[in-house]
């Protein structure tokens, strides 16, 4: 059998459903093993060695069943870690854990994550977290196996857990996946395993690790086979390390990387060649799950899968979310440059008119562009890094006012960009991608409503009214009469005509209860001031009047949405006009 590397595992799910707590609990389980060399610290990742998996899963996973050397959890904040960190051919992670709060079930971000998993065809398990908050939970000494906890808990706990678990399973069925509790699944090729977990106490963590090992060995043997030759890595971020200088935090996911290797790296403007001068990882210690970087250990070589600091000339120009590839000769380097140049442009289709998007990494930009496409948000400009003042300035000239916006994911908004935006450009910034999308969509809807209202106010719209009998307040200069609006909405500033097409005069103003009003909807009764009208000559009590639409307005309104009563008044005006001019308004 071929030697296997550690599968790379990412945690996905809705915000606040317990991803961070679960990862902290897994890290705590590793530290608690107290085995010699129990922790191999990585940059941007947490390794659970095979011996620790074996110890934690004793009685769950047979010793001879463990072939992978361990599990490597990619440790990045936010539910988009899976989508924002890419490798050639797909997502960086080989496996995923979909974290679902047992009390809240499948939420919008969960559905979003499931769509990504389905798109990437990534094997995954469900961690049903916070089961210790369900009624009937019984705390047992230590960290008992999940089966033991379920057998010792009261019937209420079992009923509630099953009800919540199958509610999640039903949601998954609706999203294209059959699912059941992990110990009730006989065929993982057709069913997703759901593991009840209490990250707070550690119950269920061992079962989850065992399930991930099983999935990786069952489905990923070819992908995890250790390869010789040059390595490939994803760049997480750039930083400066004391005593070393600029470094890139990278996850090596294929082959190996050693000091002296020639590499081609995705740059901020274009791919560039360099040579590896140093590889470093933090020394083992108590630290947090990824540890605050203290003393660094220098390495000669790293093999997949591993997270390390990599020093190389020009590495400060590397693009976060981009790729690094070891090359052996000039021809291979040239091919790698061409390949990474394609990877450097995830936004293949930019619209002539659209919003600007910004993200902290290239992968983040790709994920944000994907979400924009899914929500039919056109993108005109895509940038990695903080919101730029120049981009805001360019947006001010965009014709569509609903596109004068920047959608920013996990990047700062400098004061000069914020000041430039003023009230003319909307900057939407969030650390959770779906919130940025939702906020922009809400703003776009409101802005469109404002634009429609402004356009409507600037365009003459059809309306019909009737002069009330017994309500003549002034005969002329101007005539003031009582009217009732019988169709559409009446606004001052329009000319009125009779049913025979004769001009009556200009509607100067409207008053209701001695106060001027800017508009009068259908069924409103009020006083109208009409310049040019003379009661008894061109205006009589009981007359039906119409807003005298100019022919240009009629053409503009012909295919526009109108209310039923507006459409009725519009059709009547067109019919009146065409009695003498057959092609009027066409």
List the helices and strands and how they pair.
Elements: E1 8-13, H1 19-32, E2 41-42, E3 45-49, H2 50-56, E4 70-74, H3 81-84, E5 86-87, E6 90-91, E7 95-101, H4 108-120, E8 124-129, H5 146-152, H6 155-174, E9 178-181, E10 191-196, H7 205-219, H8 221-224, E11 232-241, E12 245-254, E13 256-258, E14 262-265, E15 272-275, E16 278-282, E17 296-299, E18 301-303, E19 306-311, E20 323-327, H9 330-343, E21 355-359, H10 362-374, E22 379-384, H11 389-395, E23 405-409, H12 415-421, E24 426-430, H13 433-458, E25 463-474, E26 479-488, E27 495-498, E28 503-512, E29 515-517, E30 525-531, E31 544-547, H14 551-557, H15 564-578
């Amino acid at each position: 059998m071929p030697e296997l590397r550690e599968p790379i595992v990412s945690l996905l799910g809705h915000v606040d459903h317990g991803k961070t707590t679960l990862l902290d609990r897994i890290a705590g389980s590793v530290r608690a093993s107290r085995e010699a060399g129990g922790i191999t610290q990585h940059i941007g990742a947490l390794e659970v060695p095979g011996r620790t998996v074996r110890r934690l899963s004793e009685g769950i996973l047979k010793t001879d069943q463990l072939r992978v050397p361990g599990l490597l959890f990619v440790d990045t904040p936010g539910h988009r870690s899976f989508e924002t960190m890419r490798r050639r051919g797909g997502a960086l992670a080989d496996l995923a854990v979909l974290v679902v709060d047992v009390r809240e079930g499948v939420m919008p971000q969960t559905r979003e994550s499931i769509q990504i998993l389905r798109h990437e065809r990534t094997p995954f398990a469900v961690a049903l977290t916070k089961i210790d908050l369900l009624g009937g939970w019984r705390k047992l000494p230590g960290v008992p196996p999940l089966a033991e906890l379920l057998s010792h808990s009261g019937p209420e706990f079992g009923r509630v857990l099953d009800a919540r678990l199958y509610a999640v399973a039903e949601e998954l069925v609706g999203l294209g996946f059959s699912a059941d509790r992990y110990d009730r699944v006989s065929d993982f090729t057709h069913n997703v395993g759901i593991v009840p977990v209490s990250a707070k106490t550690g119950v269920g963590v061992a079962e989850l690790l065992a399930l991930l090992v099983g999935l990786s060995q069952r489905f990923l043997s070819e992908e995890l086979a250790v390869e010789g030759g040059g390595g490939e890595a994803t760049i997480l971020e750039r930083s400066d390390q004391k005593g070393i200088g600029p470094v890139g935090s990278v996850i090596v996911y294929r082959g190996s990387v050693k000091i002296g290797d020639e590499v081609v790296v995705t740059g901020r403007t274009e791919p560039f060649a360099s040579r590896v001068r140093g590889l470093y990882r933090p020394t083992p210690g108590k630290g947090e799950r990824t540890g605050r970087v203290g003393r660094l250990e220098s390495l000669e070589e790293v093999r997949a899968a591993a997270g390390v600091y990599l020093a190389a000339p020009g590495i400060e120009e590397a693009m976060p979310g981009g790729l690094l590839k070891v090359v052996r000769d000039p021809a291979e380097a040239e091919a790698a440059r061409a390949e990474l140049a394609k990877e450097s442009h995830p936004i293949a289709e930019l619209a002539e008119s659209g919003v600007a998007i910004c993200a902290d990494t290239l992968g983040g930009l790709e994920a944000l562009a994907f979400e924009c496409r899914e929500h039919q948000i056109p993108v005109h400009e895509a940038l990695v890094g903080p919101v730029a003042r120049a981009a805001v300035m360019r947006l001010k000239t965009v014709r569509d006012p609903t596109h004068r916006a920047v959608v920013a994911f996990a990047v700062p908004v400098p004061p000069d960009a914020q000041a430039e935006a003023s009230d003319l450009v909307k900057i939407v910034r969030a650390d959770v991608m779906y919130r940025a999308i939702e906020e922009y969509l809400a703003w776009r809807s409101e802005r469109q409503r404002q634009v429609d209202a402004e356009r409507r106010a600037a365009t003459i719209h059809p309306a019909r009214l009737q002069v009330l009998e017994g309500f003549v307040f002034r005969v002329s200069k101007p005539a003031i009469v009582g009217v009732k609006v019988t169709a559409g909405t009446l606004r001052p500033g329009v000319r009125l005509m009779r049913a025979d097409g004769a001009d009556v005069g200009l509607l100067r103003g409207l008053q209701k209860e001695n106060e001027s009003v800017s508009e009068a909807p259908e069924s409103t009764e009020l006083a109208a001031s009409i310049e040019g009208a003379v009661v008894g000559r061109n205006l009589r009590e009981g007359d039906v009047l119409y807003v005298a639409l100019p022919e240009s307005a009629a053409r503009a309104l012909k295919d526009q949405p109108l209310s039923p009563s507006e459409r009725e008044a519009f059709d009547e005006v067109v019919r009146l006009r065409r009695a003498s001019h057959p092609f009027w308004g066409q």
